[in-house]
Design brief:
Radius of gyration: 20 Å
CATH class of the largest domain: Alpha Beta
Bound molecules: 4'-deoxy-4'-aminopyridoxal-5'-phosphate
Strand content: 15-25%
CATH architecture of the largest domain: 3-Layer(aba) Sandwich
Strand order of the largest sheet: 2-8-7-6-5-3-4
Number of strands: 12
Helix content: 25-40%
Number of helices: 14
Number of domains: 2
CATH superfamily of the largest domain: Type I PLP-dependent aspartate aminotransferase-like (Major domain)
Length: about 350
């Protein structure tokens, strides 16, 4: 990288997504069911007057809808350009350069990147073999900020509520709980945010709500912290068209979203059972994807793509479970979608003679 660039950026590179092309894309955990029709209608209703003006701050209808959805006061909501934006801003709001951010690995790949960009010291602790947190090891770093991801990307596993509560009791600073996949499990973030001062919960409309293309994320946190986060985020990160679609998705479109999230969970269970039947060993998942440790992940990923199905190939994951040790840290992360798509995936895997030993 050029010497003109800040030193701490030298080892970083831009995020790359899987190039799915014409393939069915199961690589990024977005929704194959798409957005609720009410959100699409709201987007069509955005007129030129709305486009010509800056969006309202705060986006009143959206904040109202989010507060009702989360069961919190409106002054506990901060919206952003995807939850990425809020995770990045939270690091700048609640930690200073040189402070430590502690998190368990493997986890969301952008976290070490945002930490580095914000000048934080990243302290990564492997998950336990049961994919729970090693709380003592995390807190031994005296972190200014703890990042928890539940359900976790890329493993899919959710943390027990008691583990999250212990971190909240014992962490010396603030705790960022990333619940991007919260709609696919019994996620405790909203209820914890109502009673805990030092917690920032981030969520997104990119997954269960099927609106990844519009980039809508939000944080739920105590009002005083919300004001600080809002200051750091700055104005106008969420555009007016996205705000209109999001408000519709959270009100008139909400039952549609919830029905499809329930279907995604049913598909996930069925997919995990069929993969196990086929001799593979998916990790337990509470998200809208499954993670399958697999020595042959690279080759299988290529073969599936050749058959028109894009999945995420993961390499170099820390060997925290016996299966990840056996696979040398390689795995496939496979998003769920309508069962007809899963059938295509399963028959492609069978035809490839997928065995992950
Ligand atoms: N957190 C986790 C755990 C994720 O997997 C993702 C997206 N893959 C995000 C946050 C960011 O999502 P978005 O910016 O679309 O809200």
């Amino acid at each position: 990288m050029s010497e003109l660039v800040r030193d701490l950026l030298r080892d970083l590179s831009p995020y790359t997504a899987v190039e799915a092309g014409e393939a069915v894309d199961l690589s990024d955990n977005t929704s194959l069911w798409g957005p609720p029709p009410q959100a699409v209608d709201a987007l069509r209703g955005v007129n030129s007057a709305v486009l010509a003006r800056y969006p309202a701050i705060p986006p009143a209808a959206l904040n109202r809808a989010l507060a009702a959805y989360a069961g919190v006061r409106e002054d506990m909501i901060v919206v952003g350009c995807g939850s990425d934006d809020l995770i990045d801003c939270a690091m700048r709001t609640f930690a200073q350069p040189g402070d430590t951010i502690a998190f368990a690995v493997p986890t969301f790949s952008m976290v070490p990147t945002f930490a580095a960009i914000n000048g934080l010291r990243a302290y990564a602790v492997p998950f336990t073999p049961a994919l729970d947190l090693d709380v003592d090891a995390l807190l031994a770093s005296n972190p200014r900020l703890v990042y928890l991801c539940s359900p976790n990307n890329p493993t899919g596993t959710a943390l027990p509520r008691s583990t999250i509560e212990r971190v909240l009791r014992e962490a010396p600073g603030t705790v960022l709980l990333d619940e991007a996949y919260g709609e696919f499990s019994d996620a405790p973030g909203f209820s914890l945010a109502r009673s805990t001062e030092r917690l920032i919960v981030t969520r997104t409309l990119s997954k269960a709500f099927g609106l990844a293309g519009l980039r809508i994320g939000y944080a739920v946190l105590a009002p005083a912290l919300a004001r600080a986060l809002e200051t750091v985020r700055g104005p106008y990160k969420l555009n007016a068209a996205a705000a209109a679609a999001a408000a519709a998705a959270l009100t008139d479109g909400l039952s549609w979203v919830q029905e499809h999230a329930t279907e995604a969970v049913a598909v996930r269970r069925r997919l995990a059972a069929e993969l196990t039947e086929a001799g593979l060993a998916p990790l337990p998942s509470d998200a809208n994807f499954v993670c399958v440790p697999c020595r042959q992940a690279e080759r299988l990923g290529e073969r599936l793509l050749a058959r028109g199905i894009a999945v995420r190939v993961l390499r170099g994951l820390p060997p925290v479970t016996a299966a990840l040790a056996a696979s040398n840290g390689a795995a496939l992360r496979i998003g769920v979608g309508p069962w007809s798509v899963m059938e295509r995936l399963l028959s492609a895997l069978r035809e490839e003679g997928a065995a992950c030993a």
